[in-house]
Amino acid sequence: MDKRRFAFDKSNYILLIAGVAVIIAGFVLMLGPGSTMTHFEPDIFSFRRIKLAPAVCFTGFIFIIYAIMHKPAAKRQDKTQE
Q: What does the alpha-carbon distance between residue 52 and residue 54 come to, in Å, rounded to a whole number?
């Protein structure tokens, strides 16, 4: 098969995997004990769970958008030669 027919290159897939890993890291940062009806857990309002983890997830989603929009160098050169 001709490589020019694929929408993504190896670098796009690597960037996508890295973005998914960053999102998973953000969700792992959100993990922790929760409150129940009989016990209040103040850790649910910690900086890590309220501010850091969503920011990490958002960064991962931005990274995935960049990975989708990124054009490999070979395709950019082919486009300019046409």
A: 6
Looking at residue 48, the DSSP 8-state letter turns out to be I
Q: For residues 34 and 29, what is the distance between their CA atoms, to the nearest angstrom? A: 14
Separation between Cα atoms, residue 1 and residue 64, nearest integer Å: 27
* Nearby residues of 72 by Cβ (< 8 Å), 6 or more positions away: 9, 11, 12
- Put simply, whether the predicted model's pTM sits higher than 0.85 gets the answer no
Task: Give me the mean pLDDT over the 69-74 stretch.
Answer: 79
Alpha-helical regions (H) of the chain: 10-30, 47, 53-69, 73-81
Token pair of 82 as six digits: 């046409």
- Work out the average pLDDT over 4-25: 90
Check whether 76 has a pLDDT greater than 70.
no
- Return the pLDDT at 8: 84
Q: So where are the chain's domains?
A: 10-81
Maximum C-alpha span of the chain: 69
